[in-house]
């Protein structure tokens, strides 16, 4: 079975939410995510669902990315993707959340800021249930896209590969926070055996 995975494709990571964590072009990936889902039997999504009381929050973008001495939140970030806010919603053009076969809320613990969708913490101790759900449904291949390529998408793809899935990363279905981060992320994913493809057309041909 093949599953398509929309990782954190939320408004908070697009220019629609300029005060949160806007990623250039983040609101342009819905068509590619929908196209890759056409190649899969199952479609799942993750959503960051942070608390306003999160310990890793800083007030401004200028103070962001400072290392934080919490074992499960390595960097600071401005408030984003708080459950119930506009930024929490999926980007325009995607199905309603209830239309997905499986949905995971991540980043729910106030002292933790995980990137991957498979675990609630940075040390991969607390499963979110994604891996178990995919295995239960006999999924062997996962098609991945979402936001942002150099943080949550990369980490999720690496976690899935480590769990034994064949992982395709659809580059056209992702946008990155930084270009240098994207290059490094792609190298890391390639080294882990993840197959990077240009777009869903290339995915269909492979
Ligand atoms: C993300 C930074 C902070 C992501 C989430 O989804 O890639 N990046 N929080």
From TrEMBL:
InterPro entries according to UniProt: Isochorismatase-like_dom, Isochorismatase-like_sf, Isochorismatase_Nicotinamidase
Pfam family of the protein (one): Isochorismatase
Keyword annotations: Hydrolase, Metal-binding, Pyridine nucleotide biosynthesis
Indicate the segments forming the Isochorismatase-like domain, all copies: 33-194
> Which ranges of the sequence are coiled-coil?
none
Q: What class of enzyme is it?
A: hydrolase
The source's superkingdom equals: Bacteria
Pathway listed: Cofactor biosynthesis; nicotinate biosynthesis; nicotinate from nicotinamide: step 1/1
- Entry EC number(s): 3.5.1.19
What is the similarity comment for this entry? Belongs to the isochorismatase family.
The protein's name in its UniProt record: nicotinamidase
The record lists the organism as: Shewanella dokdonensis
Q: What is the lineage of its organism?
A: Bacteria, Pseudomonadati, Pseudomonadota, Gammaproteobacteria, Alteromonadales
């Amino acid at each position: 079975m093949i599953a398509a995975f929309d990782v954190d494709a939320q408004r908070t990571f697009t220019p629609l939410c300029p005060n949160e964590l806007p990623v250039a072009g983040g609101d342009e990936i819905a068509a590619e995510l929908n196209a890759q889902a056409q190649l899969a039997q199952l479609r799942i999504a993750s959503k960051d669902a942070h608390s306003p009381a999160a310990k890793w929050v800083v007030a401004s973008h200028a103070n962001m990315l400072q290392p934080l001495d919490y074992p499960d939140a390595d960097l600071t970030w401005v408030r984003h993707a708080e459950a119930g806010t506009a930024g929490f919603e999926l980007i325009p053009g995607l199905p309603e959340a209830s239309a997905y076969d499986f949905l995971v809320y991540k980043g729910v613990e106030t002292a933790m800021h995980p990137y991957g969708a498979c675990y609630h913490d940075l040390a991969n101790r607390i499963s979110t249930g994604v891996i178990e759900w995919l295995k239960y449904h006999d999924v062997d291949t996962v098609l991945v896209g979402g936001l942002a390529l150099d943080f949550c998408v990369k980490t999720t793809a690496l976690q899935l590969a480590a769990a034994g899935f064949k992982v395709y990363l659809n580059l056209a279905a992702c946008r990155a926070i930084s270009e240098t981060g994207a290059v490094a992320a792609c190298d890391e994913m390639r080294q882990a055996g993840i197959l990077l493809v240009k777009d869903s057309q290339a995915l269909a041909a492979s």
